[in-house]
């Protein structure tokens, strides 16, 4: 009997190597925990586009709907297909069509991993709005190539969208250290961002146990570097959350450690789990990519699916390997994808 049906989309570049590693580790841990996993891999990628003219088949979304979750590597290889096509037709399309509105990105310094900062107690949960805002896709470009050329890109903030992501942030804060940082740029953007601040204030009345502070995005960017230990849950719009989660990744030791979950908190669609990093074509196929971000994304997947023992088996193994200093190049180790994966597998089967 199959317990979980997972769709795997390795995608492009290092996405292929890190999802292979994440799945190998998942299978080993599942065997140890008596969980029966079934995977179907989909070759949807820039190469697939070159072969078929599409990043995924017309019924791709319907196909994915049958799975419990999606594990994705990374999408994009600009020398093959421009990013505006590859990302909008696959990654961003899945996020939007499945309405995976909460993009959850934990930034925690694992034991043994030395980040670039002196701070040792970094444990920030970045919650990024994942379906609208600056990524709405609304806009256009006219008079191409002429001196009169105009490009317009409209941010869209709806009460429905803003309220549900803030509520998710409040709920997460409630489960953690009860501090919520709500991020805007309302001193410059006086419509959408003032609206976001207003909704934050309105909701805060429902969460008196959560201490909420509003920050401007520039100020919190600096705070994440100067005083990261003062931050608990950070909730931000699509673009601001994207940028802040790269800072988060940097301060947790590098993109090789940063996991993420694209969640449908209501459970209507399969949620999707992917490392924060991209496809990194320059290092693809060289066995240098750190698989920990992808493995930790699989951990988030099993947690989300309620398989806590499986998730903990994997995260404990990752923590033990990191504690031994085998954590990937960005944190000073010289170990590559294969070696790190093997060490984690050994911890699980030991
Ligand atoms: C991320 C990535 C994507 C994003 C890109 C590849 C479109 O940077 O998941 O953070 O901006 O959402
Ligand atoms: Mn990003």
List keywords for this structure.
binds 3-isopropylmalic acid, two-stranded antiparallel ribbon, magnesium ion binding, Isopropylmalate Dehydrogenase, alpha/beta, 2 domains, 10-stranded mixed sheet, TTC_DH, EC 1.1.1.83, binds manganese (II) ion, 12 strands, 350 residues, tartrate decarboxylase activity
Give the topology, please:
Blueprint: E1 4-11, H1 14-33, E2 37-41, H2 46-52, H3 60-64, E3 69-74, H4 83-97, E4 102-108, E5 123-129, E6 133-142, E7 150-156, H5 159-175, E8 179-184, H6 192-204, E9 211-216, H7 217-226, E10 233-236, H8 238-251, E11 259-263, E12 271-275, H9 292-304, H10 308-323, H11 337-349
Parallel strand pairs: 1-2, 1-3, 3-12, 5-10, 8-9, 8-10
Antiparallel strand pairs: 4-5, 4-11, 6-7, 11-12
Helix pairs in contact: 1-9, 1-10, 1-11, 5-6, 7-8, 9-10, 10-11
Bound molecules: 3-isopropylmalic acid and manganese (II) ion.
3-isopropylmalic acid binds next to loops.
GO cellular component, one term: cytoplasm
Cofactor: K(+); Mn(2+); Mg(2+)
EC number: 1.1.1.83, 1.1.1.93, 4.1.1.73
């Amino acid at each position: 009997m199959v317990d979980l049906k997972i769709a795997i989309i390795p995608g492009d570049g290092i996405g292929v190597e890190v999802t292979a590693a994440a799945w190998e580790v998942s299978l080993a841990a599942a065997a140890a925990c008596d969980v029966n996993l079934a995977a179907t891999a989909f070759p949807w990628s820039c190469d697939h586009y070159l072969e078929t003219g599409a990043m995924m088949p017309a019924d791709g979304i319907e196909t994915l709907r049958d799975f419990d979750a999606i594990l994705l590597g990374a999408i994009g290889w600009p020398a093959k297909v421009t990013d505006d096509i590859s990302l909008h037709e696959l990654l961003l399309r899945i996020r939007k069509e499945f309405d995976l509105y909460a993009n959850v990105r934990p930034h925690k310094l694992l034991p043994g991993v030395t980040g670039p900062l002196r701070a040792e107690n970094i444990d920030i949960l970045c919650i990024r709005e994942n379906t609208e805002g600056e990524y709405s896709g609304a806009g256009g470009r006219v008079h191409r190539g002429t001196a009169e050329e105009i490009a317009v890109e409209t941010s869209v903030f709806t009460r429905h969208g803003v309220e549900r992501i803030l509520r998710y942030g409040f709920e997460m804060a409630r489960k953690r250290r009860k501090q919520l940082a709500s991020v805007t740029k309302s001193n410059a953007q006086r419509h959408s961002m003032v609206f976001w601040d207003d909704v934050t204030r309105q909701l805060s009345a429902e969460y008196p146990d959560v201490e909420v502070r509003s920050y401007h995005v520039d100020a919190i960017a600096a705070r994440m570097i100067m005083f990261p230990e003062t931050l608990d849950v950070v909730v931000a719009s699509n673009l601001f959350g994207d940028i802040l989660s790269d800072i988060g990744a940097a301060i947790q030791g590098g993109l090789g450690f940063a996991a993420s979950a694209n969640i449908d908190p209501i459970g209507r669609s399969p949620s999707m789990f992917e490392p924060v990093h991209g496809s990194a074509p320059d290092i693809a196929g060289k066995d240098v990519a750190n698989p920990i971000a992808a493995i930790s994304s699989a951990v988030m997947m099993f947690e989300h699916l309620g398989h806590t023992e499986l998730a903990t088996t994997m995260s404990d193994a990752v923590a033990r390997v990191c504690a031994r200093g085998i954590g990937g190049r960005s944190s000073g180790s010289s170990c590559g994808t294969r070696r790190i994966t093997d060490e984690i597998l050994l911890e699980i089967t030991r």
